[in-house]
Design brief:
The chain is an alpha/beta fold. The chain has 8 helices and 11 strands. It is 38% helix and 18% strand. Strand 1 and strand 2 form a beta hairpin. Belongs to the enoyl-CoA hydratase/isomerase family.
Length: 256
């Protein structure tokens, strides 16, 4: 299992863990299916009332879709299969609060998970960036999700700058992407503490509030997501050209 679920029935808190540290917790197709299964199962577990989402290791929370994953696509600009569209709790109709705990890098497809979390706690060494434009890809779903969490200029800069720039945990806190900073390695402990508070409240009120908060975002998300497949089909370079750019990547970036 590369996505792990641990539950504490006494506190009412579950911890969902991405567990591919050797791959910087990148999501392959089996991991995507496991995440979907976990969120769906949690809908029926009334002993779990709040969830912390984390990853193994401190190098990376998640680096998005595993580049070795093979995702067959229909031969049409009007249809596209994105294996990350169902890896988050909201896309699986789970309305229990989710708190993300981020250590290390969170980039690209990681924003599918962060975008569907109620709030984010991060260690001071966390860094956020989106590599899509660097490698000739359109950042569509990620940009739409992050535009709901950050000021437009900040999310535009992060998505457009690609691998040239990484947003530090401190800057992410200043612009509202994360709600709480901790010492490196401390994010999960704080996220679990906050989840225990939420799990101690009547679940009907908590889940109703989660649903109300999400409803305020749904119209913009639905409109943005409807455009995403066409923009990706039009703007993405062919896979072989993307791979060439990825192979030539450098480690030169600035942190702000």
């Amino acid at each position: 299992m590369t996505a792990r679920l641990d539950t504490d029935k006494e506190s009412g808190v579950a911890v969902v863990t991405l567990d591919r540290p050797e791959k910087l917790n990148a999501i392959d197709l089996p991991t995507a299916r496991q995440l979907t299964g976990i969120w769906r199962a949690l809908r029926f577990d009334d002993t779990v009332r709040a969830i912390a989402l984390t990853a193994t290791g401190t190098r990376a929370f998640c680096t998005g879709l595993d580049r070795d994953a093979v995702v067959p696509q229909p031969n049409s600009p009007y249809m596209q299969d994105d294996p990350l569209l169902r890896i988050g709790p909201k896309s699986n109709d789970l309305w229990k609060p989710v708190i993300a705990a981020v250590e290390g890098m969170a980039c690209g497809g990681a924003f599918y998970l962060l975008g569907e979390s109620e709030f984010v706690v991060a260690g001071e060494s966390a860094q956020f960036f989106d590599p899509h434009t660097t490698y000739g890809m359109v950042s569509a779903y990620e940009s739409v999700l992050m535009a709901q969490r950050m000021p437009y200029g900040e999310v535009a800069r992060m998505m457009l700058m690609g691998t040239a720039e990484r947003v530090s945990a401190r800057r992410a806190y200043e612009v509202g992407l994360i709600s709480e900073l901790t010492d490196t390695g401390g994010a999960l402990g704080i996220a679990v503490e906050r989840a225990r508070v939420l799990a101690g409240y009547p679940p009907e009120g908590v889940q109703g509030t989660v649903r109300a908060l999400w409803s305020a975002r749904e119209a913009a998300l639905a409109h943005g997501f409807a455009q995403a497949p066409h923009l990706i089909a039009l703007g993405n370079l062919p896979a072989d050209r993307q791979n060439q750019l990825f192979t030539k990547r450098t480690q030169n970036f600035r942190i702000r």
